[in-house]
Design a protein that fits this description.
about 200 residues, 7 helices, six-stranded parallel sheet
Length: about 200
Amino acid sequence: MAARFASIGECMVELAPQADGLYRRGFAGDTLNTAWYLRALLDRRRSLVKYVTGVGTDALSDEMTDFIANAGIDTSGVERIAGRTVGLYLITLNGAERSFTYWRNESAAKLLASVGARLDATLADVDVAYFSGITLAILSPEHRRTLFASLAKVRARGGEVVFDPNLRPRLWPDRSTMAAAIIEGYRAATIALPTSPDDAELFG
């Protein structure tokens, strides 16, 4: 069966430690990783996997968009936003444990739902729309409402909406705001992918 998927969220520049204090640069993010594996698993002749995000107009944004496209992922949902760039995170190792330092204040992905009509058009042809708790965390309350309105239109025409809470408390101003947004994410979805320990810690 042919299928058209959209994964909605933020791709970031990843700096991963290598030998001699050097770092390897890559591109990653929870929703991009989902799109990447879907593209690898599905027959390219019978399916489309689209990534929906915002990037800047700088050279690093160009490289990120090319990286996504070269993986066979449709980039028609990647919006170019002047005056912004892409977020970055650095991985620090302590034995086998990883910790992360982020720079994302000017991330263009924060504006991926800034224009409802544009987002509606981007999702108009998809059978499945996927988003995560990180997607919700980077958006302003107004833009979260815009995203939920677009997802409701996907559902209204019989599409599936998939939500992975992927809780990241440090991205939220407080736990009550996070909890309220995650509940809205669950309500928007036809398929939810909760992590029981995370939800138990948040909701009791």
